[in-house]
Amino acid sequence: MNERSQLLKGTLEGCILKVISERETYGYEISQRLKENGFPHISEGTIYPLLLRLEKNAMIVAEYRDSTLGPKRKYYSITTEGRTFLDDFVHSWCDLQKSINQLFSNFGGGITNVGTFEDQ
Amino acid sequence: MSELLKINKKNNDLDRRLSEENTPIIMDMVAYLRMAPLSDMQVEEIRQDLLDMALSAQEREEPLSNVFGADGKAFCDEIISSVKHRKPGNLFLQWLLAACAVISIMGVIDLVFSGYLIGVVRAIRSHAQISLSYPITLGFLLNGVIIAAASFGIVYLIGRHSFETKKFAEKFDSLPKPRKFLIGGVFGAALFGYLFGIVKLGEIVLVSVNVIAYCAFLLIFFVIYKIGSGAIG
Known about the structure:
Chain A is α+β, with helices and mostly antiparallel strands. Chain A has helices at 2-22, 27-36, 44-56, 80-106; strands at residues 25-26, 60-65, 73-78, 110-111, 117-118. Chain A is elongated.
């Protein structure tokens, strides 16, 4: 679980950016989209600091809009810098995935299907 | 009304919609964030976001621990490290403006309770000449400095240890009654000694100033505080 947390820390920003790149959205919706796509333990609070960081680094812009609940809700959309970062992230991820798969294949055993590890 | 005041008022209204269980959780987080190197506007915007998340969770009947995690302090630390911090100069300016507010408020309190105004009323009634000489005493100065220092200290301590106040209260509650009385007695005696000392030192006049100039200075300090607070947000 600890290794998964470490891996998540390095990749969650890219995943959040991907969700935002699809359409303008808000925090809870982002966490729900992530949960629907294999990230069951991601809450709105988990991603909130990451959204603040992405906004600080100009990867996304935020706009407050009135909501039915009362407090104004923050809606996020991706910027040009954000799209560039996302492209770089996808390339880096594919390269890394290829390298890890190759390493595990060459040293016996390997990753056959997604989520499956074949013992030697 | 400034943007900061508008958002603060809105957030205060939203606070009242939190349940009894959720109110202390949000209060602890906001108190902790107020002690961080963030501007007042940043804190209010984050507070607005936290309230949005909390009220949504409340609507879904979810505990706030599902949203923010079990460790509120760690969550706040993540937020603080993710945003741009205010410039160090701004903090100094905020403290300076707070000092202006303290001077003006303490000055008015001293004017009301020093007996000067009673002297003015007596002079008017007896058709005597009103003295325009207002004494600035050692007691007033020391009292102002001590109250300002104590206020800042208490606010800072409460903010930095906001997640531990419940633990502290429980610890105090668990003390035996005699010890509670002893602690209360020590505080009471210290307060009495302090008040007695201030009254005695209030008899030592450092300088006398024109009362109109004194009131004008208090007003200037207050205006500086108001304008400055609005400017730095």
